[in-house]
Design a protein that fits this description.
Layout lengths: L4 E2 L12 E4 L2 E4 L2 E4 L21 E5 L9 E5 L4 E7 L2 E6 L11 E6 L8 E5 L4 E6 L5 E5 L10 E5 L5 H7 L4
Parallel strand pairs: 1-9
Antiparallel strand pairs: 2-10, 3-4, 5-12, 6-13, 7-10, 7-12, 8-9, 8-11
Amino acid sequence: MHYQYLNLNNQQDIIEGTIIRKLIQHSDPTGSLVETMRTDWHDVFDQNTRPFAMQYMSTTPTGVARDEDKWHVHKMQEDRFICPKGKIVTALYDPRQNSATYKKLNLFTMGPENEEEMYMIVIPKEVYHGFMVVSKKEGYLLNFPTQLYSGEDEGRIENKELSWQKVREDFGLK
């Protein structure tokens, strides 16, 4: 069994409230530029309902899932993920009983090497999430959360819904 992986061209059965925003990479002989956050992107930014609070970058080695046996979850914050280098799989699981996509699992391939994988994903509040680097070299993750970091808002939930080992196998890792 293989998981189904989503991207800009395949958004079948996407979890309710998830937003995918295509990012454009401009390249010339001197390098490349990608706009990663703008206040006129009203689908991913709104000063009142989806504000900008901070930005951070993390790097992760190939084959590593952040918190392998735990999901991340936020009560108050939405995350906005971008993978500017390498390739990651971002996993979302919907535990919200009042959601039309209750118990739905989505796996998104993200990275700058393929145009259909260069996007920002907005992760709704209360949706479980995590990511793994599946490129041969380390992967980078940028996040533009809607709240300043608070340990009180960030939770960890046991992961019973996804096998990161299966994801490794799907991408020929370990």
